[in-house]
Structures are given as structure tokens and as C-alpha cells.
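Most newcomers find our protein records easier to grasp once they have seen one. To make this concrete, we reproduce a full record directly below:

===
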Amino acid sequence: MVSDYGCENVKVFSCFGIGRLIICGDFEYPRGVATTEADLILVLDSELGRVTVHSSTDGSILHTLQGTY
């Protein structure tokens, strides 16, 4: 997985480097991505000050965690 700061999306690849999914959403500057044990995708959006939780099957947004720093 990579966060594409310029295109404002997240790209998910297989372990062989084959593109599986592109998550486009209400991102401004996605800076980081991670996965959970439950196979969810977490996206840190530094400009909006939040983490969004996405499905790994279709990229749909499941939760938004808003914060301040």
C-alpha cells in the first residue's frame, strides 16, 4: 500500500506488485497507511486531522476518527 500525496488517493497492491485497489475519497493529503489484524485499511490525512478506516475488499469508508494535534 502507498499513500499518493499528489493524487490524493491510496493504492493497494498484491504481494506480487499487482494493483488491487485504489481508494479515492475526501482526502486532502493522505500521509500514511496501515492495516489492522481484521484486514482493515487505515489512512492518515494530515491536512484534515483524521484517520479513515476502509474495507480492504472495496475501499469503502467504514469509520472516521477525527482528532486534533
Summary: The chain is about 0% helix and 55% strand.
